[in-house]
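Design a sequence for this backbone.
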């Protein structure tokens, strides 16, 4: 906290600076806790939505099934979700919602932004529900806990490290663009080798983004939101939760491709 002591020192001496620094430190902890709480609630909504859709989409009665996908018999709802063209609506809806929240956040009230974040989390759950058809449930749970442990360690590193990670941002962004382009190319060539490379590269990129985003959020509060507070800080907490949420989800899906056991 020595930097905070210098930044908030007053003409009366360092004692007042330490008081201000302590206040900022307490505010920072509350701010980051709010971000992690929002992110955790979003992940819980996503998981429940994904599991709920899967349970409603699959039946154990072949005679009442509308279709068969792999080893699973689908209900009419499951057919609409995973086979019919309607599936593209649920696949693309989260992407649209991300742009709505990201570009409209400054015009939204915090309560409205929260509701949009919860809606986005639910839509993400709908789009991820197909993993229960592809991977064994045991491996999904195992990879989730691996992701949670990795994410926690990376975020803790980003929060506590003294190293300035600002310069990594452009490098990680270029890596992310490369992963997206390679993923799109692989949609057409369907190369298992390229998919493996994309998954490994993606894990490295989102691991770096997790630490980088955590430090960015910390610095944004110290050098900006600590003196502003109110709705501005509340909206910033929601967008911060969204960025960490996306890092977690992408880490999870990429690790599932690498470590998950298929049905």
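Sequence:
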């Amino acid at each position: 906290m020595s930097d905070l002591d210098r930044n908030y020192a007053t003409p009366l001496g360092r004692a007042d600076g330490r008081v201000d620094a302590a206040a900022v430190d307490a505010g920072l902890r509350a701010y980051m806790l709010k971000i992690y709480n929002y992110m955790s609630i979003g992940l819980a909504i996503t998981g429940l939505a994904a599991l709920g859709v899967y349970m409603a989409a699959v039946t154990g009665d072949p005679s009442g099934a509308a279709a068969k996908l792999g080893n699973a018999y689908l209900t009419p709802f499951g057919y609409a979700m995973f086979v019919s063209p309607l599936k593209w609506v649920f696949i693309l809806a989260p992407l649209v919602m991300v742009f709505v929240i990201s570009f409209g956040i400054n015009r939204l009230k915090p309560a409205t932004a929260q509701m949009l974040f919860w809606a986005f989390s639910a839509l993400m759950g709908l789009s991820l529900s197909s993993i229960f058809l592809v991977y064994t449930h045991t491996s999904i749970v195992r990879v989730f806990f691996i992701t949670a442990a990795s994410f926690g360690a990376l975020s803790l590193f980003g929060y506590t490290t003294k190293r300035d990670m600002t310069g990594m941002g452009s490098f990680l962004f270029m890596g992310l663009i490369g992963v997206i382009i390679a993923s799109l190319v692989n949609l057409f060539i369907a190369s298992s080798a390229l998919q493996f490379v994309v998954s490994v590269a993606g894990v490295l990129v989102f691991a770096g983004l997790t630490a980088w985003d955590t430090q960015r959020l910390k610095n944004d509060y110290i050098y900006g939101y600590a003196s502003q507070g109110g709705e501005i800080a509340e909206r910033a907490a929601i967008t911060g939760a969204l960025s960490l949420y996306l890092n977690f989800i992408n880490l999870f899906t990429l690790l599932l491709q690498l470590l998950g056991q298929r049905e």
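The longest helix spans residues 14-57.
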